[in-house]
Amino acid sequence: MHSTIKIAIAEDKKPLRESLVQNLSYFEEVDVVFTAANGLDIVAKTSASQPDVILMDIEMPGMNGIEATASIKAKHPNVKVLMLTVFDDDKRIMEAILAGANGYLLKEEHPNKIVEAIENLMDGGAPMSASIALKTLNILRMQVSGNSTPIEDFGISERELQVLTRMAEGQNYQQVSEALFISPKTVRNHIQNIYSKLQVNSKIEAINMARKMGWV
Length: 216
Hints:
Arc Repressor Mutant, subunit A, 2 domains, 53% helix, 216 residues, alpha/beta, 12% strand, five-stranded parallel beta sheet
């Protein structure tokens, strides 16, 4: 049996923060000792009063949850951080794990599951939502085996792959449009869609990711 587990919550949206505090108040196993509205806030408050577990949102102003996690784990390695977020993409999952997160839950989880995950953390576990655990296993398999990730996983269409391949070959918008018999504007639209689906911001990043995944 654990003594009451001291919880801190980092969440920038006040209604969500208050709802989480309210939901956790029904459980004797946990006690919310403080809340924070952003990454800088949670880092400062954790230094002043270390909780057992922090429920950490990712998308927050000033300093996001991944940066805050890295900062907290560097100074207070015994404080456990459980990501609690709407994001389930590979990039965020890996960034959170590399920053030192001890677990990763989606906000859709029932309060019962959140409390179970907190107890699991205190027992040395690494709780994850089922979909997150599956994605993490796939990422690890890919890294260990060197196999490519199916392009379908990212929703990249056949036409978008053709554009991406020609970009990787060094072609510019005009050359891609002539080769594929589409307008430069259509090429530009495809490239914007590729950026969005791969969560990158430049042609170099898109090409590097495509090469790493074994698509081009």
